[in-house]
């Protein structure tokens, strides 16, 4: 799976669990560490844990496992490292404190229309 497809799949998994402030940043021209950051906020430490678990589960079903994870113990900030994509799931307070979007302000923001799931027509 290429890095853009992986980032989109992760953003969609987070959206499915009602993550807030989801951002997909293309950082491949700014760092050699990864191609994309997927950043999201949960409403509580429990929600942060559920979001990270959902992202892992959704990708695991497609045969993709993270290289490493960090933060599951405290759940204020959970990091999922997929190599070409790194996922950051924060509580609101941790998100405000670390402000990765500001730190990586030169990154290209992927428009939400690229990763949001297609609209399902309303049933009549």
Structural class: alpha+beta
Spatial sequence of strands, sheet with the most strands: 3-4-5-2-1-6
End-to-end gap: 37 Å
Roughly how much helix do the residues carry, as a percent range?
25-40%
Largest sheet: 6 strands, mixed
Sequence stretches where pLDDT stays below 50 over 5 or more residues: none
Radius of gyration: 14 Å
Order of helices and strands: HEEHEEEHHEH
Q: What value does the average pLDDT take?
A: 92
Number of strands: 6
- Beta percentage is 25-35%
Sum up the overall morphology in one term: globular
Total number of helices? 5
Overview of the structural elements:
By secondary structure, the chain is of the alpha+beta class. The protein has helices spanning 3-16, 45-60, 92-98, 100-103, 112-115; strands at residues 20-26, 36-42, 68-70, 77-81, 85-91, 108-109. A 6-stranded mixed β-sheet has the order 3-4-5-2-1-6. Strand 3 (68-70) and strand 4 form a beta hairpin. Helix 1 packs across helix 2. The longest helix has 16 residues, at 45-60. The radius of gyration is 14 Å and the shape is globular.
Structure characteristics:
single chain; 124 residues; alpha+beta; six-stranded mixed sheet
Summarize the SSE layout with pairings.
Elements: H1 3-16, E1 20-26, E2 36-42, H2 45-60, E3 68-70, E4 77-81, E5 85-91, H3 92-98, H4 100-103, E6 108-109, H5 112-115
Parallel strand pairs: 2-5
Antiparallel strand pairs: 1-2, 1-6, 3-4, 4-5
Question: What's the short story on this structure?
Answer:
The chain is α+β, with helices and mostly antiparallel strands and 124 residues long. 36% of the residues lie in helices and 25% in strands.
